[in-house]
Amino acid sequence: MRLAAEGVRLAYGDKVVVDGLDLQLLDGSFTAIVGPNGCGKSTVLKALGRLLRPTSGTVLLDGRAIGATSTREVAKVLGLLPQTPLAPEGLTVADLVARGRHPHQSWLRQWSSDDEAVVTEALSWTDMADLADSPVDALSGGQRQRAWISMALAQGTDLLLLDEPTTYLDLAHQVDVLELVGRLHAEKGRTVVVVLHDLNLAARYAKRLVAMKGGVLVASGTPQEVLTEQLLADVFELEARVVPDPVTGTPMVVPVRRLR
């Protein structure tokens, strides 16, 4: 078990957002967290990434309480990309990706040729080498996401958490980013947890779905097990038909009307 939440409650001040969360993420899995707006998806991801401390319960990373593990040690095995990451003005793609090596450096271990090789490989693998000298803030949305994923790749973590990486992207760039994440999972063995709004894209790329409503986990399993017409009605208040995706055979949601 790479990452787990046991009886986790999450709150902002006095407002409880997630309560009684039990979640297990297996090594080498690709999981998408889905649910309506405000259900606690991003909050859960923050807790799994050690950005938000539970008010009760425990998040475990490789069997150890993540809150008791140093930030540097967590950063060596876990990479978290927030929903709208920001880079300092004028920072180049190469410099951004190089920041992924910071957890591996110290007073005794400074920048090395090995670090340079890792950054070069990350840029090449994400098709960003030609844009290495470009400012991050001059990139298109899809290129910017590729740059951040390249940084996570250079970080060398085998556990990657992404919070809505397709937000504000057109459909072609959404597919482009998720294809890249899918390759990270399939070819480099990364364990991936991603928050997604688009249920059809979640079903196509993730091997497991976790559905939430009102801060509670209500279903988990394969896309076929989770994306049922009854769940869509109960969780999303949506009347819909679920049919096979003509390309992949995975569940495809065809909306009919909003309920209530």
From TrEMBL:
Compartments it resides in: Cell membrane
SUPFAM superfamilies tied to this protein: P-loop containing nucleoside triphosphate hydrolases (SSF52540)
PROSITE patterns hit by this protein: ABC_TRANSPORTER_1, ABC_TRANSPORTER_2
Membrane topology listed for this record: Peripheral membrane protein
Predominant subcellular localization, coarse grouping: membrane
Gene3D superfamilies membership: P-loop containing nucleotide triphosphate hydrolases
GO terms for MF: ATP binding; ATP hydrolysis activity
Stored Pfam families: ABC_tran
Swiss-Prot/TrEMBL keywords: ATP-binding, Cell membrane, Ion transport, Iron, Iron transport, Membrane, Nucleotide-binding, Transport
GO biological process: iron ion transport
Entries under InterPro entries matching the protein: AAA+_ATPase, ABC_transporter-like_ATP-bd, ABC_transporter-like_CS, P-loop_NTPase, Siderophore_ABC-ATPase
Domain ABC transporter residues, every copy: 3-239
One annotated Gene Ontology cellular component of this protein: plasma membrane
Name the record gives this protein: Cobalamin ABC transporter ATPase
Organism this protein belongs to: Modestobacter caceresii
